Amino acid sequence: MAGIKALISLSFGGAIGLMFLMLGCALPVYDKYWPLFLLFFYILSPIPYCISRRVVDDTDSASNACKELAIFLTTGIVISAFGLPIIFARAEVIAWGACALVLTGNVVIFGTILGFFLVFGSNDDFSWQQ
């Protein structure tokens, strides 16, 4: 039952993060949809780590290069997702208020992605194939 509660809370967090992103785009004060390019970063961020988990054998307790590369690429994607709205605001493509809403959405969504990997990352008690 704890898996279902975690899944519901993670989906709620994702919905709140997307709400902040949409508010930063669609409020009549801002009315620019350039921050929606961050959806690509949200999709791309877990991919390197998921690929490395499939390739790497976890029996070795030492750190390996594949997992370190995946974490490095994921960090680059996350930092780029935080940098893009700031660059848009500096170039006056979007307003600073929209930038603040988008950055708030980034924090919530990337926290939700991190929470997903912390809760469902170890295949102990919950499986999608029940």
TrEMBL record:
<feature type="transmembrane region" description="Helical">
    <location>
        <begin position="7"/>
        <end position="30"/>
    </location>
</feature>
<keyword id="KW-0472">Membrane</keyword>
<feature type="transmembrane region" description="Helical">
    <location>
        <begin position="36"/>
        <end position="56"/>
    </location>
</feature>
<dbReference type="GO" id="GO:0060400">
    <property type="term" value="P:negative regulation of growth hormone receptor signaling pathway"/>
</dbReference>
<dbReference type="GO" id="GO:0032511">
    <property type="term" value="P:late endosome to vacuole transport via multivesicular body sorting pathway"/>
</dbReference>
<dbReference type="GO" id="GO:0005768">
    <property type="term" value="C:endosome"/>
</dbReference>
<dbReference type="InterPro" id="IPR007262">
    <property type="entry name" value="Vps55/LEPROT"/>
</dbReference>
<protein>
    <recommendedName>
        <fullName>Leptin receptor overlapping transcript-like 1</fullName>
    </recommendedName>
</protein>
<keyword id="KW-0812">Transmembrane</keyword>
<dbReference type="GO" id="GO:0016020">
    <property type="term" value="C:membrane"/>
</dbReference>
<keyword id="KW-1133">Transmembrane helix</keyword>
<feature type="transmembrane region" description="Helical">
    <location>
        <begin position="94"/>
        <end position="120"/>
    </location>
</feature>
<comment type="similarity">
    <text>Belongs to the OB-RGRP/VPS55 family.</text>
</comment>
<comment type="function">
    <text>Negatively regulates growth hormone (GH) receptor cell surface expression in liver. May play a role in liver resistance to GH during periods of reduced nutrient availability.</text>
</comment>
<feature type="transmembrane region" description="Helical">
    <location>
        <begin position="68"/>
        <end position="88"/>
    </location>
</feature>
<dbReference type="Pfam" id="PF04133">
    <property type="entry name" value="Vps55"/>
</dbReference>
